[in-house]
Amino acid sequence: MTTRDTTKRRAPPLSDTEEALLQASIANNPDSAELTDAELARLRPARDVLPPAVYAALAQGSPSQGETGRVQLTLNVDPDVLAAYQAGGPWQARMNEALAEGLVRGRRRAKAGKRG
User: Fold this and answer.
1) CB–CB of 91/98 below 8 Å?
2) Which residue, 83, 86, 85, is CA-closest to 98?
3) CA–CA distance from 78 to each of 60, 75, 88 (Å)?
4) Is the separation of the CB atoms in 3 and 60 below 8 Å?
5) What is the full per-residue pLDDT of the chain (116 aa) written as tens digits?
6) 98 to each of 29, 37, 102, how far by Cα in Å?
7) Nearest to 4, CA basis, from 74, 70, 62, 68
8) Which of 1, 36, 80, 85 could pair covalently with 91 via S-S, beta carbons 3.0-4.6 A apart?
9) Number of helices and strands (H, E) in the chain?
10) Contact predicate 68/96, CB 8 Å
11) Do 1 and 60 form a contact (C-beta atoms < 8 A)?
12) Nearest partner of 98 among 116, 114, 75, judged by Cα
């Protein structure tokens, strides 16, 4: 599994007051109850309960930039543009293809402009 180096993003330690507030918030939240010993005993490894293909994908982790040659970025687009891409399947790959095609067309125009 691919792991990320989080040493650069360490949060500062909590003060005693912050820790007490956090623990009180956890204790008062019914959705964050700690597992009982009986619940812990019933837990099974993911590889034993997930379909093999799902477990293999999770165990593999996300490919790194070096493996894909791609760079993750944040991009602002019009909502209707995003909706259209998302409605048609693997939208990120198709958006990448459209951007690459636009780059090729732009280079062709630039070359044609130099000739004329």
Assistant:
1) no
2) 85
3) 33, 10, 16
4) no
5) 445 555 566 888 999 999 999 989 888 887 877 889 999 999 999 999 999 988 888 887 766 656 667 787 888 999 999 999 888 888 888 899 999 999 999 888 888 877 75
6) 46, 53, 6
7) 62
8) 85
9) 7, 0
10) no
11) yes
12) 75
Rounded to two decimals, the pTM is 0.40
- Which pair of structure tokens corresponds to residue 47? 């590889």
3 state DSSP class of 90:
coil
Are 47 and 41 spatial neighbours (Cβ–Cβ below 8 Å)?
A: no
| Interior/surface letters 70-104, b for 16+ CB within 10 angstroms, e for the rest | eeeeeeeeeeeeeeebeeeeeeeeebeeeeeeeee
Rounded-to-integer distance, Cα 37 and Cα 40, Å: 5
Residue with tokens 């939240």: 29
Are 61 and 1 in contact by the 8 Å Cβ rule? The answer is yes
